[in-house]
Amino acid sequence: MLPLTVAAALYKVVGEDGKVVYTDMQPNPDAKEHRLGRINSVSNPAYNMDKVNMRLHYVDDAGAMIVQGTVNGISMSFVVDTGATLVVVPLKIAQQAGLMDGKTEMVTSQTANGTVRTPKVVIQQLNVDKVSMTDVAATIQTISPNQPELGLLGMSFFGKYKMTIDHDKQEILLEGK
Questions:
Q1: CB 147 within 8 A of CB 36
Q2: Ranges under pLDDT 50 in the chain
Q3: How far apart are CA 65 and CA 115, in angstroms?
Q4: How far apart, in Å, are the Cα atoms of 153 and each of 1, 9, 30, 40, 81?
Q5: pLDDT tens digits, residue range 144-175?
Q6: Going along 51-113, which residue ranges are E strands?
Q7: Backbone torsion region of residue 70, taken as left when φ is above 0, otherwise alpha when ψ lies between -120 and 50, otherwise beta
Q8: What is the pLDDT of residue 168?
Q9: pTM
Q10: Taking Cα atoms as reference points, which of 98, 91, 82 lies closest to residue 153?
Q11: What is the CATH number of domain 53-176?
Q12: Where in the chain is the domain with CATH 2.40.70.10?
């Protein structure tokens, strides 16, 4: 298989405010063409977003993989749990992140401690390491009374990715499906 290469004409346009913009459409007959070298689209992730690999770094805590993230800008830690259908956010973080609106749907969840009723919410912005997602389904539940700011990173986050774990490097490699 040979890599696909392309060439494109770009035009450099300087606006009245002095800002420089590059475009592939000639804005006026006087615009100067900016020559761009050939682009190898196989090795250039900007042109092949489905081939981008993202890495999540984790800390091993007695066999549990712990990753750092934010929920609507509020920092928290997550246990990587591919057995969890949804992301789980503890009550304290949910309140700080504005997830509690009083009109939340209640759902039944099966946990290691039995069946519980939990509020189901949508996280507007979930960031884990350098991976960012919007509109992520989650439930609100404190999973550890000893660690009230610990949540679960479940399949509503991981479900869009092929996942490979490298225990030697303590990282999870995510690749778009």
A1: no
A2: 1-6, 39-45, 47
A3: 24
A4: 38, 44, 54, 35, 6
A5: 888 888 999 999 999 989 999 999 999 999 98
A6: 53-57, 59-61, 64-71, 74-80, 87-89, 105-111
A7: beta
A8: 93
A9: 0.69
A10: 82
A11: 2.40.70.10
A12: 53-176
